[in-house]
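Structure tokens please, single chain.
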Amino acid sequence: MREEPLVRWDWIGRNWPSIQSLLEDHVVMSLVPIVVGLLVALPLGLACVRWRGIYQPTMSLMNVTYSLPSLAVFVMLIPVTGLATRATVIVPLVFYSLAVLIPSVVDGLGSVPDHVRQSAVAMGFTPLRRLLLVELPIAVPVVLAGLRVAAVSSISLVSVGALVGRGGLGYLFIDGWQRQFYTPIIVGVVLVVLLAAIADALLVLAQRLLTPWSRARGTA
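Here you go.
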């Protein structure tokens, strides 16, 4: 009796259009929470730096949200956002991203030395110009470190959405498990890991492009 191979390449070839569609869906549901989370975390983190009193309540709320099991949150959202919709997966992932990004923004802005801020004020920089040209560039490495964690987490957690009908590549895990057929599971795992690696590499590249002085210092 011929043993079943671990990976059925013919199955991948026949089902590649479906795999590609799931991959595209996975990318969208991973990318949107990261972008939305960053757009919300930047002003909210800045507010936490300016008014320290709101930082602890904000982070307490984010930490409670982050501690909730993702599947439970997906299920609770179904009556509001619907079954098997992107919103059911994206909304919780935005809050998970915020739980990582807000502390990164606060820590990044807090890492700006006081004498640098004072020098910018002495040079006549307005608060907005100082923020955009001095504080944010210095905070970039710390913010992007948090963004890398949020990106990898988002790419991984999207798969859980398959249990409520919309999980991108997570559908391959469910399909393979139900049929005791390992090829879809292996394909899904490889693609998720590949997506996470690509996202991390792109963010590392972005950091190098946004902080050219760090490369110059390293060369020196």
